[in-house]
Amino acid sequence: VFSPFWPPVHTETVSSPRKNAAVDAERDRMNTTEWFRSVYEHVTLPTIYTFVFIIGLGANVWGLKSLLQKWKNLGHINVFLLNLGIANFLFLPTLPFLTAYYFMRNKWIFGDAFCKITRFCFNLNLYGSIGFLTCISVHRYLAIVHPLKVMGRMTVHNSVAISVVVWLLVSAQSLPDMLFPKNSTNRTEKCHHTTTTKYVENYLKYSVGWTLTGFVMPLLIFLGCYGHVTLVLCHKNTINKVVKQRSLKLMFILILLFSVCYIPYHIFKNLSLYSRAFFFKHGKYPTWDEGVFSAHQISRGLVCLNSVLNPLVYLHVMDISAQLQQLLQRFRQTFTRLNC
């Protein structure tokens, strides 16, 4: 093990102050990183998980209940909405365990097998949500651009078959993640969300391929669909004004989901993995590692917000705004009676 102060101080002449300054700067950087890791991972991140669990569970239960009540009126898109809700419910029950893990300062007490299951459920939620949001986007695209030619051939069986294919693809992409170790040999109570430093180079290659197939390709499909839809809505005067407004609102919701939850997570996850692989190979981190590390930690909190933002898709597609107005009106009437 080489000390940062080797060779001894008495052999240094002119370069000694410069080296000492570099060591001090490196120590300050490590202290700042450790402080951020401590505060964010052990306070902020579990707080976000608690918020997502409470709000997300309530919002998704209400959304799926409304979906089942309006099942026959929605058409084939209800199958994709149902699967989007299932993807959320696969992840939400694991949040109390992750909250306990980070509150206990990264001490996992639930076993290695359940650690891998928890991370697997997160990946199913993430990439299942991306897949079914893409299906909803394509469905809306076909309904506006090809309402008779293509949509006339769509059946419930087709929607179910597409959903099965999405789940199979997402599972096939996520299963290799379970083969990587999630705890260190000397720290068996850890539960890494990627893998240990020893296997980080192989995991980086897997993660890049996973990102391309599970995120970039759906993102390109989404951009292509709504780019074409925007052109059609702008140039066709025969389309109903209400249809235009609803399509643009759905596009805004999906852009919000991709921009806040999905894009930052995938960018900074892969950059962080590359930084760890660089350290494993060269014995030092890149100069930009500190900023990427902080951004990656923040993106981990943002990505789980998709379980809270996904019900906005229910709200839009099922037009639950009318139900909200009725609930508010009943609440006002009840409050007025109580005051009287």
TrEMBL record:
One of its GO terms (cellular component) is membrane. It is found in: Membrane. Keywords: G-protein coupled receptor, Membrane, Receptor, Transducer, Transmembrane, Transmembrane helix. Its main location: membrane. Pfam families: 7tm_1 (PF00001). SUPFAM superfamilies: Family A G protein-coupled receptor-like. The chain crosses the membrane at residues 48-68, 80-104, 124-143, 155-175, 208-229, 250-268. Gene3D superfamilies: Rhodopsin 7-helix transmembrane proteins. One of its GO terms (molecular function) is neuropeptide receptor activity. Residues 59-314 form the G-protein coupled receptors family 1 profile domain. It comes from the Eukaryota. Belongs to the G-protein coupled receptor 1 family. This is Si:dkey-78k11.9.
